[in-house]
Amino acid sequence: MRQHEDRAYYVALSTVPDMGPGRMHRLLRHFGTMAAAWHGTAAAWRDAGLEPAVAAGLEQARNQIDPAQELVKLAKAEVSVLTWEDSGFPPLLRQIPSPPILLYVRGSLEATDQLAVAIVGTRNATSYGRSVTRRIAADLAANGVTVVSGLARGIDAEAHRAALATGGRTLAVFGCGLDIIYPAEHRRLAQQVAERGALISEYPLGRKPAAEQFPVRNRIISGLSLGVVITESREKSGALITAEFAGQQGRDVFAVPGSILTQTSVGPHRLIQDGAKLVASVDDILSELNIHLAGRQPELTAAMPLSVEEERIFELLAGDPVHVDEISAQSGIPVQQVSSLLALMEVRGIVYAAGPLTYARGSH
Fold first, then answer.
1. How much is the pTM?
2. How far is CA 76 from the centre of its chain?
3. Left (φ > 0), alpha (ψ -120 to 50) or beta: where does 139 sit?
4. Inside any domain, residue 237
5. CATH number of the CATH domain containing 123
6. What does residue 79 show for φ and ψ, rounded to 5 degrees?
7. Quick one: how far is CA 188 from the chain centroid?
8. 268: which of 123, 173, 255, 302 fits an S-S bond (Cβ 3.0–4.6 Å)?
9. Closest of 70, 101, 88, 17 to residue 205, by C-alpha
10. Same domain, 282 and 316
């Protein structure tokens, strides 16, 4: 009940200028609830780590915003909110550095979306880039993998469309409020994604696109995914920023080779030189992530033998539900890898989420 009541204050606080997820996490740790943070004093906000200018913005917002009405606006826009305290908050996203503290969602996030791969690339895609993106996205979707991207022109849009055409799920992460479709010509595509997956943003309704917001949102694209595929990219691009975030988050980075004469292949080639996994077909992705045949033959996937690391985790879940930090400590497996393995094991029915970041045995 408290989570539901606190939701309005999460939303209200997210509208405060320069608040951001880092400051909101500090407020939550200091006050215990977002309601208490909203009703705090200037001195208490400073004690929580807010700078004077941000605290002044919060005080002004408190005089102008009715938190309950913010939920009404969201309902009218058919947008729901997942907060840090909700059990449905994506578990992989909890593990990243600087995680979002709330997500605005149009559509739905499903347990199977934990089996996700991001595909990103240049807005100025070549015919080769578009073709290879469609093939990889379609093959991932056909294997039960959710395709994540950013709804941008070029590679992103091709990835979403191919996943939808194959009957799969896809998630689009925005760098603005969900009531602002950017680019505007993707309005129909956005609606299709919402019907067969979800539109996601950490920005409140009304937040307009801004150049500095898109690199920030890229950490969510990679954070929602087990791996990131770059199909085409110039040497400096948002796609390479996403790949960099993926590396920091312990996610696999994949790159599709292209012509050495094409500028849009410079990015993938640089990534391959730096250790990214070369992709010649979707099998290179599926085998690396140990999710081969996940969608086409789920009964075989469930019956696949566990890896050594998965066996270690499974043994630790013999009794009561265990938190991922404890699993990591007892198994010696890094916590980000534990989270990724648990996501795969949950999709296969081997474990289930008994609470936030807490798992128990399913059937095996």
1. 0.81
2. 24
3. alpha
4. yes
5. 3.40.50.450
6. -120, 130
7. 22
8. 255
9. 70
10. no
